[in-house]
Amino acid sequence: MSTTYQLTKEQDDIVLRFPQQLLDDQALAYLLDYLELSAINRRSQLTSQQAEKLSAEIKQGAWQRVMHLFKEE
């Protein structure tokens, strides 16, 4: 099996080269988002319980901002 990519490290950077037809723009954006979120997750000191609490707070805040759109008057 031949690889369709080249991976090199240059100082503080990782350089990944692959044919453009391998990924469309949306797939590339998803890949880069995944890599960024993975890096954030590795550095995070947040526990699962804290993450669940934060998620609930965010959902509640979002609902408070949009619930007027769903109320019948």
Question: How would you sum up this structure, described in words?
Answer:
The chain is of the alpha+beta class and 73 residues long. It has helices spanning 25-43, 48-66; strands at 6-10, 13-17. The longest helix is centred in the middle third of the chain and has 19 residues, at 25-43. The chain contains two helices and two strands; from the N terminus they run ββαα. Helices cover 52% and strands 14% of the residues. A hairpin with a 2-residue loop joins β1 (6-10) and β2.
Question: SSE layout and pairings?
Answer:
Layout: E1 6-10, E2 13-17, H1 25-43, H2 48-66
Antiparallel strand pairs: 1-2
The secondary structure category is alpha+beta
- Give helix % range: 40-55%
Overall body shape: elongated
- What's the arrangement of strands in the largest beta sheet? 1-2
Total number of beta strands: 2
Number of helices: 2
If you compute it from the alpha carbons, what radius of gyration comes out, rounded to the nearest whole angstrom?
A: 20 Å
Distance between the termini: 64 Å
Low-confidence stretches: none
Mean pLDDT: 92
Roughly what fraction of the amino acids lie in strands?
A: 5-15%
Main sheet makeup? 2 strands, antiparallel
Order of helices and strands: EEHH
